[in-house]
Amino acid sequence: MTTELPQDPFMLLSVVNMKLRDQYASLEDLCDDMNVSRTDLEEQLCAAGFEYNAEQRRFW
User: Fold this and answer.
1) Domain assignment of residue 3, yes or no
2) 10-46 in b/e burial notation, b at 16+ Cβ within 10 A?
3) What domain range includes position 26?
């Protein structure tokens, strides 16, 4: 995971959802641009109880 993203899952959730809303058209775009593994990101947020909704482009 890149140092640009917080390690705390709740802060990570907030930052990722904000970036998806304001800067990126998809989770893939965010991960590619930030050089982050989508699998690692989803696993970290899933472990905290969140899952990605592609239709809404956000984690819940």
Assistant:
1) no
2) eebbeebbebbeeebeebeebbeebebeeeebbebbe
3) 9-59
